[in-house]
Design goal:
The chain is an alpha/beta fold. The chain is built from 14 helices and 12 strands.
């Protein structure tokens, strides 16, 4: 092939990347719903399992449809390897557990998604791994927290739900000085607006459930990294623990990637416009959107992202006001998901961050009046009318 897929533009990578047609030369990607594979001979099976011959041996290890998804996302991200998992949290879990063992240390931003925070605060210590949370917006805090035995650093930027911005390049330099690996949860930015590997990160993680599917259908996750890190930290662990992505879900996610660029750019434009509208409403105490000049991390966001994303964080001052706002919405759904074609809003203290101890929430920006608004593909005019009307009632 004269064309090098690495040289393609994003839109072409999302349509053509990883395409592996069968002997039937189908137009749409094939769906291989199979648990296992057969061999021409016992000797052939021996060679396949030893790695001497290429091919698939069991869908827990890999599958042709899953591999198409992995190859396409890796091409988009600029990663040597992508390994897909059943959910985003399975990916975060494996990304961390593959790097650490008893006696090691992990540092993470304190304003994390509730399940990610539980994983670091409650799960890792059970295996003898020390953990430290820091103000993710302060490079000095990262510097003071990182130790000689720090093996993993987890960055979520923009963070969930308050859209804090972390300087990926600065933190990566600090982590690499002690040999630690940097994991970036890039869900909110998407691979369209931020590519952490180019900023110094070692590992990128996605919940493909969000923007990559983008239409509320399936769960999925992915880890993207170098061939060396995959071989050392993830290949055997994934093979033997089995957090496998189903072929059907992989097929749906492959089709989701085809329209990812179109969807998130449209959602981004609408979110940016809607942020300006709601910022002027008297019911809104604060609106946070990374590309607004009043966002505390605006300068860093502009330096490492090409778009502000699809999510807004609102503070309406009280739980009562937040609930009134949510209950008054007629177009926007109340849902704890995000990145969907349908606009969705949720109250993080009682949903996504309910597991965070109540006394900790204010320090994380998870306030009682908080609302996370994921902007979909509806028209800006209709969303403006719906959100403004609900704010009037709040």
């Amino acid at each position: 092939m004269a064309e090098d897929p690495k040289d393609w533009d994003i839109a072409t990578k999302l349509i053509r990347g990883g395409l592996a047609r069968s002997q039937y030369m189908e137009t749409a990607e094939a769906l291989y719903l199979t648990q296992g594979f057969t061999y021409d001979s016992a000797e052939g099976a021996d060679r396949r399992f030893s790695g001497e011959d290429p091919g698939f041996v069991y869908s827990r290890f890999n599958n042709p449809t899953v591999k198409m998804f992995e190859d396409r996302l890796a091409l988009l991200e600029g990663a040597e390897v992508c390994r897909a998992q059943a959910t985003g949290m399975a990916s975060i879990h494996m990304a961390l557990m593959g790097l650490v063992r008893a006696g090691d240390h992990v540092v993470a931003g304190r304003a994390l998604f509730g399940s990610c925070r539980w994983l670091i605060a409650e799960w890792l210590p059970r295996f003898g791994v020390e953990t430290t949370f820091v103000d993710a917006t302060d490079p000095k805090a990262w510097e003071e927290a990182i130790r000689p035995n720090t093996k993993a650093v987890l960055i979520e930027t923009p963070s969930n739900p308050v859209l804090e911005i972390t300087d990926i390049r600065a933190v990566s330099e600090l982590a690499h000085a002690v040999g630690a690996k940097v994991i970036v949860d890039n869900v909110f930015a998407t691979p369209i607006f931020q590519q952490p590997l180019k900023l110094g990160a070692d590992i990128v993680v996605y919940s493909a459930t969000k923007h990559i599917d983008g239409q509320g259908r399936v769960l999925g996750g992915a880890i993207l990294t170098s061939e060396a890190i995959n071989e050392e930290c993830y290949r055997d662990a994934l093979r033997h623990t089995g957090p496998s992505l189903s072929p059907f879900n992989a097929w749906v996610l492959v089709k989701g990637l085809e329209t990812l660029d179109l969807r998130v750019r449209r959602q981004n434009d609408t979110a940016a416009a809607l942020a300006d509208v709601v910022a002027d409403h008297k019911a809104v105490k604060q609106v946070l959107y990374p590309f607004r000049h009043d966002h505390p991390g605006h300068n860093v966001a502009k330096a490492q992202m090409s778009g502000g994303g699809t999510v807004l964080a609102l503070d309406l001052g009280s739980r009562e006001a937040a609930f009134k706002f949510l209950n008054a919405l007629e177009i926007v759904d109340i849902s704890n998901n995000l990145g969907d074609a349908k606009s969705m809003a949720t109250h993080p203290p009682t949903t996504t961050h309910r597991s965070v101890p109540e006394e900790m929430r204010p320090s994380l920006g998870v306030v009682e009046g908080g609302v996370r608004l994921s902007v979909g593909l509806e028209s800006l005019a209709d969303l403006t009318r719906d959100v403004t009307r609900a704010l009037d009632q709040a």
